[in-house]
Amino acid sequence: MSPAVDVKTLVIDGIDVSARADQTVLEVARENNIFIPTLCHLDGLSDVGACRLCLVEVKNSPKLHPACVLKVEEGMEVTTKSDRLLHYRQTILELLFAERNHVCSVCVVNNHCELQSMAQSQGLTHVRLPYRNPKLTVDASHDRFVADHNRCILCTRCVRVCDEIEGAHVWDLMGRGIDSLLITDLMQPWAESTCTRCGKCVNVCPTGALFDKSKLGSDHPKYPDFLPYLNMMREVR
Amino acid sequence: MTSEELLQIAETNAAERKEFDYEVNVCAALGCISQHSDKLKDALEQEAAASGKRCHVRQTGCMGLCAAGPLVRVEPTGTMYGSVQEGDAKAIVDALGGKPVERLEAHLEKYFHGQEYIVLENSGHIDPENIDEYISRDGYQALMTALTQMTPQAVIEQISKSGLRGRGGGGYPTGLKWGTVAKAHGAQKYVICNADEGDPGAFMDRSVLESDPQRVIEGMAIAAYAVGATKGYFYVRAEYPLAISRLVVSLREARRRGFLGTNICGTTFAFDIEIRIGAGAFVCGEETALIASIEGLRGQPRPRPPYPAVSGLWGSPTLINNVESFANIAPIIRNGPQWFAGIGTERSKGTKVFALTGRIANTGLIEVPMGMTLRQIIFDIGGGIPDGRRFKAVQTGGPSGGCLPAEHLDLSLSYDALISAGSMMGSGGMIVMDDTSCMVNVARFFMEFCMTESCGKCVPCRTGTAQMFNLLTKICDGEATHADLGLLIDLCDMVKHTSLCGLGMTAPNPVLSTLRYFKDEYLEHIDNKRCPAGVCACSSKVRTEEEVTV
């Protein structure tokens, strides 16, 4: 927190708020208890603007802007809720549900899944799109964790936490487009990879794609809130 | 290098050429090489040596009309021969100084009439691998002038005044872009030439790089001087091996002549260029993905701002322009901005190179002033639709563009006119279609392209294009309902407005433009399970059923 940063004032959903110039609209909104849906964003990790759920309208701008990377500006007027935005957010969630095989009733993180709770909060009642039902693999080679690609939404939180926090960069993506796939190292089985077994990726994963073997058949809450604290301690040091 | 030395090189080169009575120019761009123009050149050389005539056989760049390749032009008469085979070499050499070989003569007056050459002024006239031939046609004079007589601000002002807009498709004012990079803070700045041309049916940039690479290098050096960069990159797609090998030669030659390196033209200006080869991803034509690819990362776009002009390659201010934009720079500096601004329409200045392909008589590369109508391009220069078929649509702008029907044939070409008609200028691909094309199938083709080329980073583009492709396939197969069409339109709107980069934002355009002008074809597929053009699977299905009943 450098003291030399300017302070800006802006309006979010009709509420006057103040912010440091280096803050994003998402950060300021959350400080002021204005909820903007996100899936790829996680406090403590870099932002990629990939899930597009946090798109907001900015007055006098023809485009929609992802709040997670949108820097505040003086006098900005931001709208985070509108029928149009809700429709887009619901469609994005529909696309995610139809993309792979998301079956909540048999999922290890049922009731602790960010995708599931996001669908509830956005009032998604059904999926209009045909399910693609791709055939995907499950990597259970690791002695502690499992990667189930059927439940992956390619948010890349695991890739970022492994690279930016753990410093191992075991996770990455291969392929492109609809064929993108999360891999460990150069597509080695997880057990044979350079994984440090820290388990951060499992805790930041918003769905049941990465889970702990010991939690099978039981409640599997995730605890992704350790990152801001870790980052703060790193800065202090 | 001083301007006297530059003049000296040009004079020496001109004197060398005067030693020959005849020049036989053989097109050695990829289109003609694929028809064995390299072997033709060898044969011509042998025949010329055997005949004893003072004749110089030379490889040149693209002569334009690729459909009539391999092309040969004989100077000083300017006789053009088309579809020349190896066996014709003797006839051509024998005809030198006499009557041209009638059966080979290509009558292209109509094809060249109406074209105006700025970017392609040297294409087909010089050996692309010989820097001295480029210098003999006023090459590097602009760089010399800029470095020795102009301030960087003055260069930017000239480009701004010329009204040049980015030729990669977006049409962003080039002078404004240069000004932004020049003003951005940073000890190190970069200039990147985007030669990752990936639109289906587009080959303008490839042709420019194969035919006149020095022109692009000169443009980049002027840009580097203007914005304060010392390092440049060519980002060329790996699918263009000939362009890459010519660039390698040209960069070496430019260094040898002192136009790259340190103390360029005797000034303190230093600049050098490296080549980076793409790895087969269309999305790497998007500037932030291109930068990631040069940095050695996965070729994925990132959200903008910050724009590359402020934070680009390795976080430094970076200027990215397309091949054709850079190719326009030297003539603008040489002839002045007023000259350039005098060509074209009010808001779209200069000329544009187009690659004419599809159902058209004269497939090839053309350069026309902005403001020309589609009708002039397709029916006069392009020679119209072959086999007596009816014109149906012209697709411009690649997978980001759209299809324009016959009612828009009199549209005069400019960035804004094309956008308001539901298409875009794009990089310059122009695919002409006749009544044997099904517009739903065309939309499906482009959607498949976007689906396979999506990087997969953002949700709307990654899974939206796949869903739209499936819906279009369903329509083509005659299995769709009106609800499917509604869903398709809904997805088009959503993907267009929520995607991260230009690829996703424009992926629905081919669908939207065909829906705008050819909705009846969609409805015919849905209501009557019939493809009017007889292309899609549904029509063959209906036919087989009929055959069964008979």
Structural class of chain A: alpha+beta
The total beta strand count of chain A reads 10
Give me the side-by-side strand order of the main sheet of chain A.
2-1-5-3-4
Overall mean pLDDT of chain B: 93
Strand-residue proportion of chain A = 15-25%
User: How far is the first residue's CA from the last residue's CA of chain B?
Assistant: 82 Å
Number of helices of chain B: 24
How would you write the strand order of the largest sheet of chain B? 10-9-13-11-12
- What proportion of the residues of chain A is helical, as a percent range? 10-25%
Proportion of β residues of chain B?
Answer: 5-15%
Quick one: overall form of chain B? Answer: globular
Structural class of the secondary structure composition of chain B?
alpha/beta
Low-confidence stretches of chain B: none
The gyration radius over C-alpha positions of chain A equals 19 Å
Number of strands of chain B: 13
Reading the helices and strands of chain A in chain order gives: EEHEEEHHEEHEEHEH
Largest sheet of chain A: 5 strands, mixed
Structure description:
The complex is a heterodimer of chains A (237) and B (550). Chain A is an alpha+beta fold and 237 residues long. Chain A is built from six helices and ten strands, in the order E-E-H-E-E-E-H-H-E-E-H-E-E-H-E-H. Chain A has a five-stranded mixed beta sheet with strand order 2-1-5-3-4, with helices on one face. In chain A, strands 6-7-10 form a three-stranded antiparallel beta sheet. In chain A, strands 8-9 form a two-stranded antiparallel sheet. Chain A starts with 6 loop residues before the first strand and ends with a helix. With 550 residues, chain B is of the alpha/beta class. In chain B, 45% of the residues lie in helices and 13% in strands. Chain B is built from 24 helices and 13 strands. In chain B, strands 10-9-13-11-12 form a five-stranded mixed beta sheet. A four-stranded mixed beta sheet of chain B has the order 2-1-3-4, covered by helices on one side. In chain B, helix 11 crosses helix 14 and helix 19 (459-476) runs antiparallel to helix 20 (482-498). The model of chain B has no long low-confidence stretch (mean pLDDT 93). Classes of the chains: A alpha+beta (237), B alpha/beta (550). At the A-B interface, helix 2 of A face helix 18, helix 19 and helix 20 of B.
